Amino acid sequence: MMTILTYLIPFLLAFFGMEFMAWFTHKYIMHGFLWFLHEDHHQPDPNTFFEKNDAFFLVYAIPSWLCIMLGMMWGNTFSVGFGFGILAYGVTYFLVHDVLIHRRFKWFDKVQSPYFKALRKAHKVHHKNRFKEEGSCFGLLVVPRKFYQEQKKKR
C-alpha cells in the first residue's frame, strides 16, 4: 500500500497542480511575451492543421518525460509519479481542448454534459477576444460557476 501512495500522491499533486500552471502559463506567458506563438490559436488559418501554438506541448512534455525517465533510472518514485501526473494532465488537455472544445478531431460530437458544455462556453468567451490583451477564462478544467449553472438550467 505504501508503494502505491509514493506514486499516487505525487501523481495527484502534479495533475491538479497543472491546472494552476496551465492557467498561469496561458495568462502570463502565452498572452504575454510568447504571444507570437499563441496568436495563431486566436486568429486561426482554416487552411492549416497545425499551429505555432501547438509547440507549447513541449513546455510540459519535456519535464514529464525527464521526471519519468530520471525517476526510473534513479529509483525515485516521487519523480515517476509526478511525471505521470503531468502526462495525464497533458492527455486530458489534448482531449478536452483540442478534441472536445475545438473539435480538431470529431471524436466527442455528442457530449451533452452540463460541465463539458460549460467548458466549451468558457473557452468561447476566452476566444471572443482575438488579441493579446483583455482576455478572460484562462484555465481549462476549472470554469466560472456561472457557465456551469447556465448549462444546468438549460437541461
Order of helices and strands: HHHHHH
Kindly report the average pLDDT value: 86
Rg, rounded, reads 17 Å
Distance between the termini: 42 Å
**What is the SS-derived class?**
mainly alpha
Major sheet description: none
What's the helix count?
Answer: 6
Tally of individual domains: 1
Number of strands: 0
Parts with pLDDT < 50 across at least 5 consecutive residues: none
Helix content: 55-70%
| Beta-strand content bin | under 5%
Assign an overall shape.
globular
Structure description:
The protein is built from six helices and no strands. It is an all-alpha fold and 155 residues long. It has one domain (2-153). α1 (2-33) packs across α2 (35-42), α1 (2-33) crosses α4 (77-101) and α5 (114-128) crosses α6 (145-153). The radius of gyration is 17 Å and the shape is globular. The model has no long low-confidence stretch (mean pLDDT 86).
Throw out a few tags for this protein.
mainly alpha; 69% helix; globular; 6 helices; 155 residues
Q: Which SSEs are present, and which pair or pack?
A:
Blueprint: H1 2-33, H2 35-42, H3 57-74, H4 77-101, H5 114-128, H6 145-153
Helix pairs in contact: 1-2, 1-4, 3-4, 5-6
Summarize the model shown.
The protein has helices at 2-33, 35-42, 57-74, 77-101, 114-128, 145-153. It has 155 residues and is an all-alpha fold.
